[in-house]
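Structure first, sequence second, as always.
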């Protein structure tokens, strides 16, 4: 699979798709390369702050690296504005198969910034971020949302 292929084809072609989920400090290129040696079908990057990614070349160079064998790959971003999410997605779109909006990070610093699981309090904003990204980034390009599942029914109304 290359960066221009629709990632959904992977799920149509295989009965079982193995996925390496985004892990803090562990989902960088070197780890993705390792898990692909063990036949991992789809890899995610660690969560990247979309605002820093858009503003800083240094952040881009540090947070996202890839190579020709690193496909399919989904880049996970934390964002709470359309401009930041779509801008970051646009920048990585030539080098990945899609982006994922992280709406499940439970860390206090993320909640204080209004990202991660705090986004679940704003379902209209999540919808707008996804819709705008879908409309502005060339297809095929996957846009997904990572949601946390709670033990109670607080998410039922979403």
């Amino acid at each position: 699979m290359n960066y221009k292929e629709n990632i959904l084809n992977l799920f149509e072609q295989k009965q079982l798709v193995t996925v390496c989920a985004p892990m803090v400090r562990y989902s960088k290129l070197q780890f993705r390369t390792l898990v692909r040696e063990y036949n991992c079908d789809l890899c995610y990057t660690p969560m990247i702050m979309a605002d820093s990614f858009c503003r800083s070349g240094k952040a881009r160079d540090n947070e996202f690296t890839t190579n020709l064998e690193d496909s399919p790959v989904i880049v996970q971003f934390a964002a709470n504005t359309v401009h930041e999410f779509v801008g970051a997605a646009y920048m990585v779109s030539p080098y990945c198969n899609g982006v994922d909006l992280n709406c499940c990070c439970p860390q206090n610093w993320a909640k204080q910034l209004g990202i991660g699981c705090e986004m679940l309090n704003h379902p209209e904003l999540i919808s707008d971020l996804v819709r705008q990204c879908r409309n502005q980034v060339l297809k095929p390009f996957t846009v997904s949302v990572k949601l946390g599942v709670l033990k109670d029914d607080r998410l039922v109304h979403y």
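Margin note: Residues 8-145 form a domain with the TIM Barrel fold (CATH 3.20.20.70).
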